Amino acid sequence: MSFFKKIFSSDKKETLDKGLEKSKTSFFSKLSKAVAGKSKVDDDVLDDLEEVLISSDVGVDTTLKIIKRIEERVDRDKYLGTDELNLILREEIAGLLSETSGEDAVDFEIPADKKPYVLMVVGVNGVGKTTTIGKLAAQFKKKGLNVVLGAADTFRAAAIDQLQVWADRVDVPLVRQDMGSDPASVAFDTLKSAVAKNADVVIIDTAGRLHNKINLMTELTKIKRVMQKVVADAPHDVLLVLDGSTGQNAFEQAKQFTLATEVTALAVTKLDGTAKGGVVIGISDQFKIPVKYIGVGEGIDDLQVFNKIEFVDSFFK
């Protein structure tokens, strides 16, 4: 299909293929058992396929959409062999995501009319939020952009120190205060510093304490309001980081954070260490928020701009 034109460079595609290996192996193991001894895609095969997709963390709603598309194709083509199921799945999922998730970015791009471009990053502890910020800073710097980081997760000293390690590693400035400081004050100082330095990109880390959603909502609203005193339309994006290895829990976190603040983009991390990569398909389809980045390894270059067609191609390769 024309969907599957190559967009990524060969090294990025190789990293993506490798990063999805566990998910792919698990999925095809289940799929092989489901169609064993059967030659035709019939109701029994579709029932088994539904179970395979749900157990692969694609999510119930997205799974039902995929099954419906395949049922329509079976009706249209009259006979589909189980040997064609892999290709059919690949095509129908790519088609579904192309219809529902908007355009993909090709590279680490920022809006040309935003200077500085302000990115506020949210997510619970342990999802890879700080690491994602560090890797984003590295990618933006590689493009020749001046980056400033802000450590507004003042709830944990470890968060500030970890971000400092990344700032030193990438060689970008970090604006920080002591643990327990007002996060909005840190965000304000970061933007003031970024404007003074004529920075291109500002990335603000924030605390994510979902067990206290009202406080979280209040804090994030205050951070936004204070930032707008320096940059009128900041933040330009609110990036929610989700841990792909948590499967369905990532769906729940996405729901909770979208209630707490206006999330405009998603990053799904830790896909290389899990068999739950199908969660990206479900999240990409279910939330009307684009998956912008995925983490498929521990290296700095293993944070990739998400391209749904390349992702599906790797998943069903």
TrEMBL record:
**InterPro entries reported for this sequence:** AAA+_ATPase, P-loop_NTPase, Signal_recog_particl_SRP54_hlx, SR_rcpt_FtsY, SRP/SRP_N, SRP54_GTPase_dom, SRP54_N_sf
Record localization: Cell membrane; Cytoplasm
- How does it sit in the bilayer? Peripheral membrane protein
What keywords appear on the UniProt entry? Cell membrane, Cytoplasm, GTP-binding, Hydrolase, Membrane, Nucleotide-binding, Receptor
Q: What is its EC number?
A: 3.6.5.4
Single GO MF annotation: signal recognition particle binding
Q: Name one GO biological process term.
A: SRP-dependent cotranslational protein targeting to membrane
Q: Which SUPFAM superfamilies match?
A: Domain of the SRP/SRP receptor G-proteins, P-loop containing nucleoside triphosphate hydrolases
Q: Return the broad EC class.
A: hydrolase
Please list the residues that bind GTP. 123-130, 205-209, 269-272
| Pfam families in UniProt | SRP54, SRP54_N
Instruction: Look up the domain of life of the source.
Output: Bacteria
| Gene Ontology CC terms | cytoplasm; plasma membrane
Report whether Hydrolase shows up as a keyword of the record. yes
Q: What reaction is this protein's catalytic activity?
A: GTP + H2O = GDP + phosphate + H(+)
Task: Give yes or no: UniProt keyword GTP-binding.
Answer: yes
Main location (coarse class) = membrane
**Boundaries of each SRP54-type proteins GTP-binding domain copy?**
290-303
Family per UniProt? Belongs to the GTP-binding SRP family. FtsY subfamily.
Its biological function? Involved in targeting and insertion of nascent membrane proteins into the cytoplasmic membrane. Acts as a receptor for the complex formed by the signal recognition particle (SRP) and the ribosome-nascent chain (RNC).
* Quaternary data: Part of the signal recognition particle protein translocation system, which is composed of SRP and FtsY.
Protein name as it appears in the record: Signal recognition particle receptor FtsY
Q: What is the lineage of its organism?
A: Bacteria, Pseudomonadati, Bacteroidota, Flavobacteriia, Flavobacteriales
What gene makes this protein?
ftsY
